[in-house]
Amino acid sequence: MADPGFWGKRAAPWAGLLLLAGCVPNQRTPTWAIYPLPRRVPHDGLAVVSQPDGYGLHIWIETDTRRQGICQPRWTPDAARLFNGNGTAPFSAGLVPRQEFFDAVARQDLRRALRAESEALCKARAPQRRYRWQEPPRLAKEVKAERFPLLEQPELLSDPNTIDSSEQRLLNGGT
């Protein structure tokens, strides 16, 4: 039998290590796949596979048309948890911690995708308005609490005591 020589003895362990390294499943690292995942209409959601095994965020995109002639994104840092993001039927449920949203939007590739989807959503919802990009918040102190004045007007809110007494009258024979 021939002597394998110096290189033959040294190459065998390295070849074994390379083969083992190639067998590590790729699910142990996030893929950072980013793709549209509609919530209700096209362009109103973006899937971000930020964790191993297909977990990540489902970022919801809203539009803001409060300014005359302008449509821009309205950011909600309360993204949903993405499941099966690398699979054939991704879905979302629950919420992710806000810090996970802030970490994700720090990525340039994600902000590019958010910009493209929010622009397409604005063009679909308000085609006559000019699109203006608004950066998503990257820190908790940048999050602005949204006011919804129509829901806060007193004439739209019923007094809970009045409703309770009305229900009791109905239950007791309508008097």
Features:
175 residues, alpha+beta, seven-stranded mixed sheet, 5 helices, 7 strands, 34% helix, 19% strand, extended
Please specify the SSE layout and strand pairing.
Elements: H1 5-22, E1 34-36, E2 45-48, E3 56-64, E4 70-75, E5 80-83, E6 91-95, H2 98-105, H3 108-125, E7 130-131, H4 149-152, H5 160-171
Tell me what the structure shows:
This protein has 175 residues and is α+β, with helices and mostly antiparallel strands. It is 34% helix and 19% strand. It is built from five helices and seven strands. Strand 3 and strand 4 form a beta hairpin. The longest helix has 18 residues. The protein is extended and about 65 Å long.
What is the makeup of the main sheet?
7 strands, mixed
End-to-end Cα distance, whole Å, is 108 Å
**What percentage of residues falls in helices of 4 or more residues?**
25-40%
Radius of gyration: 26 Å
Number of strands: 7
Number of discrete helical segments: 5
* Binned strand content: 15-25%
Overall pLDDT score: 83
Shape descriptor: extended
Q: Structural class of the helices, strands and pairings?
A: alpha+beta
* H/E series: HEEEEEEHHEHH
Low-confidence spans: 20-24
